[in-house]
Amino acid sequence: MTGMEAPDAELKKELNATLHIRKELGEEYEPALVESFLEKVEQRLDGAVDRRVRRQLAEQQMVVARDARSPQGSSDSWGERFGFGIVSLVLAIPLSAIGGSVADLPGLLVAWAGIVGVNVVQAARLSPSFFSRRTGKSASDSNSDWEG
Q1: Among 22, 30, 91, 111, whose CB has the most other CB atoms within 10 angstroms?
Q2: What is the 3-state secondary structure (H, E, C) of 67-131?
Q3: 121-141 CB burial, b ≥16 within 10 A, e <16
C-alpha cells in the first residue's frame, strides 16, 4: 500500500494520545484537541504533497534534459536524407528496368515519377520549411504585417 492508504503508525499514536488526553481532561478541551490533531494531519498531508510534487518536477526536468541532449538536429536529418537518397537510387535501377521492359517509355516515366514523388514526400517530411510558400517581401515588410 502506498500514499494515503499506507498505515501511519505515528499518526495512529497521535490519535490514540489525543483520545486518551480527551478522556482525562474532559469534553471542554475537545475542540482544541481535535484542532491540534487536524493540524498534525494537515502537516503530514502537506509534506506528502510537497514530496510528490518535487518528485514529479524532478522527473519532468529529467525528461526535458534527455530531450535536449538527444540529437535531433541537422546531423540526423542529413544522415536520414542521405540514406534515403541512396536507397531510392539503388531501387530506381530495377524499377526502371521493369517499367521500361513492360511498358517502354511510359512505364519508365511512371517508375521515375513514383521515385521522385517518394523523395519529395520524404524531403517535405524532414524539412517542411523548404517547401513553404515564399514571397518577395523583405523581412521588414513581413514584420509590418503583424504591427497593425
Answers
A1: 111
A2: HHHCCCCHHHHHHHHHHHHHHHHHHHHHHHHHHHHHHHHHHHHHHHHHHHHHHHHHHHHHCHHHH
A3: eeeeeeeeeeeeeeeeeeeee
- Helix (H/G/I), strand (E/B), else coil: 133: coil
Q: How confident is the model at residue 136 (pLDDT cuts 50, 70, 90)?
A: low
User: 103-125 pLDDT, tens per residue?
Assistant: 999 999 999 999 999 988 888 88
Q: Which three cell numbers stand for residue 35?
A: 484542532
130: cell is 523548404
* Cell numbers for 9: 503508525
What is the distance in angstroms between the CA of the first residue and the CA of the last residue of the chain? 60
Q: 7: Cβ–Cβ under 8 A, 6 or more apart, which residues?
A: 1
Computed over its alpha carbons, how large is the radius of gyration of the chain?
35
